[in-house]
Design a protein that fits this description.
Helix content: 40-55%
Shape: elongated
Order of helices and strands: HHHHHHHHHHHHHHHHHHHHHHEEEH
Largest sheet: 3 strands, antiparallel
Structural class: mainly alpha
Strand content: under 5%
């Protein structure tokens, strides 16, 4: 069959005429030929919500694992149309090729149709997919299932957690297995702040002390990556879990053996939130609340945060894991390069030490708490400690400004202060070329 045959197939699918389809196949249609978009008759039959045609095509030799130009399987379309009979037909027999074929999205480690079907609203589709998975339990790479389910938007929390629970109840292995990037499912859940998922994983044996393959960081370190969820969890179970995950991050910096002038005591979750994060203080307060430290311990860690924040605001370069913390792969700077960088930044380091001495001196005279002093100290230093990560700009009309060459635009550069007040740092001017030319060639005679 060639491209011209597909309009006829489309007509057949619209009419859902089994006799016409059987006649078309009898006249020599090859069921695996495809359109320019690589759509096969099986794709079209699944999209048309016609299980009868799906059955006939499969019996005629149609390949159910074929992918179109968007890497979609016929199963994709069957799941989207919630055609349960087609889903069951396409899941019969071997399901391993669904997991070994190229993936539609780099964000998922499992086939997108499986992911969307497992977390979707249809319990019947979900049960069919789980049944196929359980049937193939000796053949599939199960770590991909847990890893894929740990990722996703918050509106799918409940369905993902439910699916993980059902996988675990069937004894599906892989809950602590690391993916190709070195992350466990629990680490992935922490990266995206999927706390319900994290709780299900931990309650069923996920290790909170397992370390990332390259960086040596634990799941608690990765809680710092999501800047939108620093408020403590609303329920006590998640509150306690967050505290446990974070505490492991504080207990293992010496094991990780990362040294940098930003964190001479070791790389911790508090060290990770400083620098480049407008909500760093909010996160710090939230972390301390969850960890419920005594005053002396809180004082020590708040000082560590201040050191890391000053390090970042001075523009010094990290030689620890933080230099690559937000990238996909955690590659560390070798010792020779670290020493060279720190030698080049000796003046910066002297400034860092000077400011920390000032911090300690002022702290002794300050009567308030450690967090209050943190605000006080950075407000004193705000104009000098300019964080390049926080720059923002906005255009301001200055048509009546005589200092500008023509109307142009004046950009005010600012950053939020440590206490979230806006501080302006001068401006730059953007002048329209035609205005300059007008001034040059239309001078008063």
């Amino acid at each position: 069959m060639s491209e011209w045959g597909y309009p006829y197939i489309s007509d057949i699918l619209l009419r859902k005429s089994q006799s016409d389809l059987e006649s078309f196949i009898h006249r020599g249609m090859r069921p695996n030929e495809a359109t320019s978009r690589l759509l096969t008759p099986l794709h079209l039959a699944a999209a048309a919500n016609w299980p009868g045609a799906v059955k006939i095509l499969l019996a005629s030799g149609a390949d159910k694992y074929v992918q179109d130009s968007e890497l979609c399987f016929p199963l994709d379309f069957a799941i989207q149309t919630e055609c349960f009979e087609s889903v069951d037909l396409l899941l019969e027999g071997d399901c391993v090729p669904y997991f070994t074929s190229p993936l539609k999205s780099n964000f998922f480690s499992i086939p997108l149709p499986f992911y969307m079907g497992l977390i979707g609203n249809s319990e019947r589709v979900r049960s069919a997919l789980l049944g196929a998975i359980f049937r193939q339990k000796n053949s599939l790479e199960y770590e991909k299932l847990y890893d894929g389910l740990a990722y996703g938007p918050s509106r799918y929390f409940t369905s993902r957690a439910s699916v993980v629970g059902r996988l675990l109840s069937e004894g599906v292995p892989g809950i602590n297995t690391k993916n190709s990037d070195g992350y466990t499912p629990l680490m992935r859940a922490c990266i995206y702040y999927n706390f319900e998922m994290a709780r299900v994983l931990v309650e069923n044996g996920a290790s909170i002390s397992e370390r990332h393959t390259n960086s040596g960081l634990a799941a608690g370190h990765f809680l710092t990556r999501n800047h939108g969820h620093y408020a403590p969890p609303s329920n006590s179970a998640d509150f306690d879990l967050r505290g446990k995950l974070l505490q492991v991050g504080f207990d293992m910096p010496n094991m990780a053996k990362f040294y940098c002038r930003c964190s001479p005591g070791g790389f911790t979750p508090i060290t990770a939130i400083s620098g480049g994060n407008r909500r760093a203080r909010e996160a710090l307060h939230s972390f301390i609340e969850c960890l419920q430290w005594p005053a002396k311990k809180s004082e020590k860690e708040i000082r560590a945060f201040a050191l890391a924040e000053i390090f970042d605001r001075l523009g010094m370069r990290h030689t620890c894991v933080k230099s690559d913390f937000f990238q996909r792969h955690n590659t560390l700077i070798v010792e020779e390069d670290r020493l060279e960088i720190e030698s080049e930044e000796e003046d910066f380091n002297n400034e860092l030490e000077k400011l920390m001495m000032e911090y300690d001196m002022l702290r002794e005279k300050f009567d308030g708490g450690a967090l209050e002093f943190l605000d006080y100290f950075f407000e004193l230093q705000e104009q000098d400690l300019v964080d390049s990560n926080h720059w923002s700009s906005r255009p301001v009309n200055n048509r009546n400004d005589k200092d500008l060459l023509g109307p142009g635009k004046n950009y005010n550069f600012s950053q939020p202060s440590f206490a979230s007040r806006e501080i302006l740092y001068g401006h730059t001017e953007e002048v329209r070329e035609e205005n300059v030319l007008g001034i040059l060639f239309n001078e008063e005679k």
